[in-house]
């Protein structure tokens, strides 16, 4: 009785549409006329079409910047900071969480400008005499995907850091004392005390950031809209484009299903791994 | 020994400060740009010669950000209370009662945590158009409630699971109905959890982009982020006005964050743990 209203809304506006997407993915449909049944044809097209394949690969590259680097940064910071309980963390915590709360669209607009010809990034390079490095970052074939990825690094590093730092607070400080008495150096201490205790937090950070990378849309849409060429196209962008400007609804649905399965699979894998290890 | 730790301590702070600066500079740079005279080409991080707030007026009235903010608020006002009520009810039942199949239902909700907007947005557009709910706030509100429901239910269920069962049992022995128990005893205790959930749901609703872009194609009805995304495509040359618009879109959530930072941060970190 109490569960029913929540369940009904969730079922009607999230679960049914997801199933409907799977159904649509079996048709070739322009959104207007009657669709044609093509079975798994759309899925076949995803694996054959270079742009579609490219978008999935780009998303996987973004995982490096959205997930891997923030986690490494967060762990490094934790390793350096874990030995002390320090006052004044509140202010840092506030600042590090800041990119988490503002709309990603606003983040995208901000970075689009920072990466511009006269933007802060180029200004900085010029100031230190590296004029040769300057370029229109988001329009550069070689640099655009990395530039977009670094925006994700900027957004998600703080979250990872705070997750790890708050995880470390829960570690019994006597463990550190014991390690120190045993003559463990900072590195040893990090590997044998800090890291094992953060296993749960690392799994969580991986899950959250990987999903953010795979399902990225806002930042890419605002900064590059997939360009130059197809350098920064991601599945989210193509689902939107295929369904609503190119009239390939079935193909868009199939891509959405592939994306959904990819996310589900990775989340499942991370959870499995973190559980079996602990 | 003492000096070594002090050194270590200071280098730790130095490191934190470097990271903090890296976080803050983009915000600072867009804020300073918003204070430059309208239409001027702004280079990187430039201190404005005189502080002009004209761009905010410009963005607010001419570029229509007052309307956009209003639309976003309309949606949030629809989403937040409904989410809290539905999640509290479901969380109460799933967290305190032994329901037949309760665990399966809970697992079904949890599975929803992995649904990305991309997976549901395409048929939603066609289905809601059939119902006349595209270009309507009601449509967006319903979908957002559904989209945040897995997390909301999970959050409230965890909260109710952690309340002492003896409290509920004592009330039941006194003859209180399950509705009375929820309203009189458990909800007042749940206020901090509900507030944090409310803040998170408000934030997600405010920041939602793709869903709004698809379901509200009438640009005059856009929300703040969607409007900003559209505006940047139209006016990428007038940096000061664009910067002012960006700040306006961030401001409501920033104000809430400043006021409720404890709940926000705790919620985000715990929320990530639960997700």
UniProtKB/TrEMBL annotation, chain A:
The keyword Cell membrane applies. The keyword Transmembrane applies. It is found in: Cell membrane. Its main location: membrane. Gene3D superfamilies: MetI-like. InterPro entries: ABC_transporter_permease (IPR051393), MetI-like (IPR000515), MetI-like_sf (IPR035906). Keywords: Cell membrane, Membrane, Sugar transport, Transmembrane, Transmembrane helix, Transport. Pfam families: BPD_transp_1. SUPFAM superfamilies: MetI-like. It comes from the Bacteria. The chain crosses the membrane at residues 59-82, 94-114, 141-165, 202-222, 249-270. Residues 56-270 form the ABC transmembrane type-1 domain. It is a multi-pass membrane protein. Belongs to the binding-protein-dependent transport system permease family. PANTHER family: ABC TRANSPORTER PERMEASE PROTEIN (PTHR30193), INNER MEMBRANE ABC TRANSPORTER PERMEASE PROTEIN YCJO (PTHR30193:SF37). This is ABC-type sugar transport system permease subunit. It comes from Streptomyces umbrinus.
UniProtKB/TrEMBL annotation, chain B:
Keywords: Cell membrane, Membrane, Transmembrane, Transmembrane helix, Transport. Its main location: membrane. PROSITE patterns: ABC_TM1. Gene3D superfamilies: MetI-like. The chain crosses the membrane at residues 12-35, 68-92, 104-125, 137-156, 194-216, 239-260. It is found in: Cell membrane. It is a multi-pass membrane protein. The keyword Transmembrane applies. Residues 69-260 form the ABC transmembrane type-1 domain. Signal peptide: none annotated. It comes from the Bacteria. SUPFAM superfamilies: MetI-like. InterPro entries: MetI-like, MetI-like_sf. Pfam families: BPD_transp_1. Belongs to the binding-protein-dependent transport system permease family. This is ABC-type glycerol-3-phosphate transport system permease component. The lineage of its organism: Bacteria, Bacillati, Actinomycetota, Actinomycetes, Kitasatosporales.
